[in-house]
Every structure is written in structure tokens, then in C-alpha cells.
Amino acid sequence: MLHLGLRRTDGSRVRLLPVVAALVIGAIALGGCAGQEQSGDPAQRVSTWVDQGGGGSSVGNLEVDAKNVDLALSQHNKPAAIREVCDLLSNDGQTGVGNLPTPDQELTTDLDNAYIEATDAGGDCYSGAGGNAALMSKSATERARMVALLNVAVQRMETVMGRTPTTDTTVPPTGGGDPFAGGT
Q1: Is 104 part of any domain?
Q2: pTM for the complete prediction?
Q3: 88 by DSSP, 3-state: which?
Q4: CA 129 to chain centre
Q5: Nearest to 60 by CA among 81, 100, 89
Q6: Is 172 exposed, middle or buried (0-12, 13-18, 19+ CB in 10 A)?
Q7: Alpha-carbon distance 103 to 34, whole Å?
Q8: Rounded to whole angstroms, how far apart are CA atoms 75 and 156?
Q9: Residue 31 resides in a domain
Q10: Omega within 30 of 0 (cis) for the link into 101
Q11: Considering the domain boundaries, does residue 34 fall inside one?
């Protein structure tokens, strides 16, 4: 019999079988702790991530933020007000990055690209709000790319889930029903 030379301080041998068995049982138990977005078919995993990870509302927040930047600019708001909406766009882009990865690699890439554009657009807008036309133009281009990239991500969600996710930024007060039923 092979002994690894493990001995206790009192000179008795350590039995490895109980130690190995405990480690194996622990690993199996921890494997059962996988999140819901890690179980089921791809549609179920992505649906769970969109619902519990806030993927749909994250997209909606960025869409609203971009519209708010455009509105503030069209109303010739003061630089401080413009910076505020630009900062929201940047912060929501960063929050979106924090929600990644999704259970679907292609969706993760699509959203990551959109979130990076949002963060850049918000930062350039914030920095340019005092009158830097070049930065404001760059931000406008980045916002347009962000919207296009968000549309690609939503299309990917639809393809994987087999339904249109809601991009509402609020949950109905009743809290019931399917949050993906016919949303836009």
C-alpha cells in the first residue's frame, strides 16, 4: 500500500480517503449553486439574465439617456444641465458593463460594444458641454452608434429568446405577468 508520509503530530497516519471524499462532496455541492442564468436552454438562460440581470432595462435606460441628451441640446440648456444628462449616459453605460457577461457570448459582445459607446458618448458630451463643438459632434456620432448597437443586441435577445424583450425602465406596480410579452 502506498503511503504519502502524512502523519499527525502524535505519529498516527492521516487517512486521505475521508479528506478526498469531503472535497469531492463539497465541490459537487458548490456546483449545485450555479445561478439560474447558468441552467436551462439558451433561451431560458438569456431570459433569466435579461429579467434578473436588468439587461432590458439597461438598454432602455441608455435609449432614454441618449434622447435626454438630444433634448437638452435642442433646448439649448445651460452647460451644467447638459453635463448632468451626459453624466447619466456615461454612468448607465458603465453600469451596463458591470452587468456583463450574459449567458450568450454574441449578446455579451453586442452589449459590451454598445455600453462602451455610451460611456464614451457621455464622457465626450460632458467634456464638450462648455462649447467644444468637436467633442459634441463626436458624442453625437457615438450616441448614434450606441443606438444602432443596442438595436443589434435587442435583435440578438429576440433571436435567442424567441420573443421581444421589454426595454422599459420601470417594472409595473403589480409585479406580475411576463416582463417580455410584447415589450419594446
Answers
A1: yes
A2: 0.71
A3: helix
A4: 28
A5: 89
A6: exposed
A7: 12
A8: 35
A9: no
A10: yes
A11: no
